[in-house]
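Exercise: predict the fold of this chain.
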Amino acid sequence: MKNENKFLKINYGVIGYASKFHNEIINAYKVSKLVGDNTVKKINNCKKAREEKNKYTINDIFRHCWESFEDKYGNTITRQSIFDNVYSMIKCGSFDDDNGYLFFECPNPECNSFHIQPFTCKCRCCNKCGKIYSEARAIEISKKCLKVPHRHITFTIAKELRPFFDIDRGLIDYLFKAVEFTFNKLAERAGKLKEYKFGYISTLHTFGRDMKFNPHLHVIVAEVIVDKNNNYKKYDYFPYEKIRKLFAYELVNSLKKVISPKIKAFSIFANKLTKKKKNGFYVHGPKNQGKTKKDNEELIKYVVRYAGHPAISESRILKVDYNLHLITYFYDPHEDDNIEDVDEKIGRQYITEDIDEFIKKIIVHIPENGKHNIRYYGFYANKSKKLSVLKKKLHSMLSNKKVKLLLDLLKWRKRIINSYDYDILMCEKCGKILVLIPNMCYIPPSFEYIRRPSYG
């Protein structure tokens, strides 16, 4: 065995977890170096290998701890969407009866090799599925957007209002409506007779890097306005002092109408808040330095990536101790982003806390069932007929050819190849690519069409 391992290390660089499977690896290399390398990379990226490297996943943390957490705190959870999403995430990629799977078989009759690929959960609190969701949404948004400069504007509510949004998630609709009101007022000032419209896309984020509940909107707006005759003109001046006040005025007034009948003291509280925030709520949207199509694509990816995954990246999780029920992770404060002097920075923050407290921070950001975190307005609205006319004049940000290419890269097999550099469907006995056998696949009766994965 030592000689075989030494042979593999000298000739193929086999190290790590894969060395425990020397017989399988030697047999794979007997087929070809390509098959051998593929097998080594597949083994070194399996779940057990990642665990030995202290690579932790949100899904595994919930699988270990959710049952005890639910026993202690389940009666305090008032939103059904939390249970629905967590249960789906725990089953993600498993062979549970509620899940389905695809069956692949080697076309070489002498091999009898096969691979079963379970379906994923497609829920927005799953780190793996959320990443795919955000990438797919970024492509869809880029496909819809015009080939013109876009501005990124952030609309933030006063921290005093956050508890109300946490208790009643329906209030988030009024956050979107307040932004819509603001842009409609700006359009009116741009030319009342011509009935101008902006085109913009609002994306909801509910957390910062410290994972605290902080609902705010990131808006991508085209720097053009369009009149009722589909004539357009450049618009790159955004009066932020006015925008802040318009946004705060509409949001507070809307909340007063909704909350005051339930909480009589809210009107007094809201009036005091308005006086305190006489300059409106914080709105940030500096002019973009980059004007190329690539700059716009990167902007969209940046805004959308937080719309479809948990409040923390798994790379920030440093240690999970299930025996002591503790988790350690870190975050870099937003306040440090624009500070060049290292001595003036707050610095990276390391948090060690009970896993139950960590779970609480995760589930508070799970969106309501049926609610969209990304919404389209103006000439970007789905019902708008202006966009097709404008695209003939200004063109799309992405060509149909590039959209097809990018969507193709999101297929699960190609994602694995691009991320881990191995082909999950390569036969280890002969090197052929396994093929789908439809009559051997299992699709549960309740399985929604939109959740079925692509397998190219």
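Check your answer against the key: The first helix runs from residue 2 to 12.
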